[in-house]
Amino acid sequence: MFGKSLFQSVLERLDAENPPDALATPRHAGISGIPAGFAFDTEPTTAGDAVRQAYVDMVEVQHPAPMPPPQPQIQIQIQSSTSPPPQPRQRPAYLDRLSPADVAEDLDISSVDTLATLAEKRRAFATRNHPDRHAPEDLQAATTRMTIANMLVDEAMRRMKRGRPIGTPARRPR
């Protein structure tokens, strides 16, 4: 049973259970419910034995030897003497402007702004300053700038909705 395909072992078991003289009596010719054109001949014939032997012969075809595992490829990069060495990455100067006054200046919020222009200024600021657009070493500065900008724009929008000018301080409760 070892070293044989499942089909071969089933055929050998069937041959052992049904001696050749027992197969000489015809069984049902065809399969119930399937037209004769689709059903195979179930009567044992020498042609059936030839088909079975052809299958067995096909299964026993020698398979090619397995491929050896791929060898790791070593890549060597040769720098030409004419190309300059890569420049170190420059941190954008605006990321060093972290005070609320600097961020407010960069946002350029004025008393003539509307809710729509404030939303547009927020989007434009985020396009340039969002942490997802900066290197990992600049994430903290970009996050701080976006936090301050969002706070300033939100406060300006709140003042506009309450009817107060953007530049005046809020009233303190007495």
What's the SSE blueprint?
Layout: H1 6-17, H2 46-59, H3 100-107, H4 115-129, H5 139-161
Helix pairs in contact: 3-5, 4-5
Describe the structure.
This protein has five helices and no strands. By secondary structure, the protein is mainly α. The mean pLDDT is 76. It is 41% helix and 0% strand. The longest helix is centred in the last third of the chain and has 23 residues, at 139-161. The protein is elongated.
Structural class: mainly alpha
Helix content: 40-55%
Shape: elongated
Q: What is the typical, i.e. mean, pLDDT?
A: 76
Instruction: State the low-pLDDT regions, or none.
Output: none
Please give the largest β-sheet.
none
Number of strands: 0
Which sequence of SSEs, written as H and E, runs from N to C? HHHHH
Tell me the radius of gyration.
Answer: 41 Å
Note the gap between the termini: 97 Å
Tally of helical runs: 5
Tell me the strand percentage band: under 5%
